[in-house]
Amino acid sequence: MHNEIVLVIGNKAWSSWSLRPWLAAKVAGIPFREEHVQLRQPDSAAQIARHSPSARVPVLKRGPLTVWDSLAICEYLAEISTHVKLWPDDAAARAVARSVAAEMHSSFHALRKELSMDFHARVDGVEPSDAAKADIARIVAVWRDARKAYGAGGPFLFGAFSIADAMYAPVATRFRTYGVDLAAFGDDGTAAAYAHEVLDLPAMHDWGQGAAREGIAAR
Question: Of the residues 7, 63, 162, 175, which has the fewest C-beta atoms closer than 10 A?
């Protein structure tokens, strides 16, 4: 179908960047078809290159349109969403939400390197570097400040679910995987409660089931 949206994604266990627009589309109720590329395989780069000019996933394809960046895909989804708004209505809240999302997109490199996403894994004994600890403290502050300033209308960073939440959803899985005690990084309970809300989203459970099926298929 010419108007069908196809989202090319990597393994659900590992691909944090794939999770972000997938989650936004699911929460917004935007129909799409998944196309999977197996990561960490000898031919992974070649398979991704069939879809993506950047040789990375995720990729959104719709007829002649190709969008190859997670945040750009989320922005496109926000533009075409008809039932669920993926950015706050208020202009000031929307500007802050975009800042929060963009910070996730461009920052936190130590956290990503040392606490990589592995959706169902539980890993003990990982001691983050000082740089990763600073990343965790900053994320806790982002979550706490957004919830307190803009979160009165619901359980997410800006009340209702937004792209900002989609961008940080993989971080919530990382904190669970590595047993990160957010209280040790300045949390007063706000960030931990928020992470629980994100992980409890029905769409996150669906993603987790997909990750589990991948694990079974790989055995």
Answer: 63
